[in-house]
Amino acid sequence: xxxxxxxxxxxxxxxxxxxxxxxxxxxxxxxxxxxxxxxxxxxxxxxxxxxxxxxxxxxxxxxxxxxxxxxxxxxxxxxxxxxxxxxxxxxxxxxxxxxxxxxxxxxxxxxxxxxxxxxxxxxxxxxxxxxxxxxxxxxxxxxxxxxxxxxxxxxxxxxxxxxxxxxxxxxxxxxxxxxxxxxxxxxxxxxxxxxxxxxxxxxxxxxxxxxxxxxxxxxxxxxxxxxxxxxxxxxxxxxxxxxxxxxxxxxxxxxxxxxxxxxxxxxxxxxxxxxxxxxxxxxxxxxxxxxxxxxxxxxxxxxxxxxxxxxxxxxxxxxxxxxxxxxxxxxxxxxxxxxxxxxxxxxxxxxxxxxxxxxxxxxxxxxxxxxxxxxxxxxxxxxxxxxx
Length: 388
Ligand SMILES: [Zn+2]
Fold this sequence. Notes:
single chain, four-stranded antiparallel beta sheet, Arylsulfatase, C-terminal domain, globular, binds zinc ion, 388 residues
């Protein structure tokens, strides 16, 4: 091997790996995905996680957690305002890991606050109100395929913003979180969302076709997820997302597609922060010990049916309450297992406890009813709060 130059060796090592394609369906709701024929088609080739919990029910902190494998409370991106406070020197991102081993890295997003630009060769921003994402991203696949044929691996991060754009125009800019008219029109809210969701389905069909046409399934890991769900009027006080920690926004989905794994559905709760270590594990890329340890864990043992202890999922957000902008620090926090959730509303020092199996829409608050699980979850909450 000594006749290879360092660069050639780097390319040779990179060549053996799979490409990575991450697609975020911004605001994609789990219940819609479960009913969708397009997404069922996707599930037939995926390791499907129908219980994937976001760190933050809003875009930037959710994606910073996904890409760094760590919660915003440690990585610095813990509010709408904190993308620029992401601790780049302490948390190495998935992009940087892949770039270091020779991947060509490309992000196409609607705002530069969504994820750290570090490690990206191309970091493209589109205007969400003008763009045709089906066309634009279809073209990107051609570009990536050309790279791949030159024996370079690629990492492509695509953000499907269509649902977000529609909700911004017709909900966020029209109503506030306490607008009765919005909450009294549940049917209209559902229909508005469903119409937007259909555009996401068309987008996914395009993606599937492109990956098939370019014969990229075999050589790529494809992760399709959403950053958070969106309210259709379930709870007064949250017209869209980002105010509460209820399951209609924090519980999302993940389709993990790789020729290394047979399709299956994983019932255990997993978290956005687990996918970065999972991808590195699959690609045999070791964690860099010069950086802080991750909050997430590799899901490869779980996918392979090995013993796996389900982890606590931590979520936090800044409820704007009566103000018209979110606060600079989270004030609403939750810890969750696949069966129970404890919410702590820090702004008024109240707690909520829900039995998610019996009460998935979280209407029957069981706090202070003497259940042992309450103390257990509170202790888990404190452990996470005290971790550094
Ligand atoms: Zn979002």
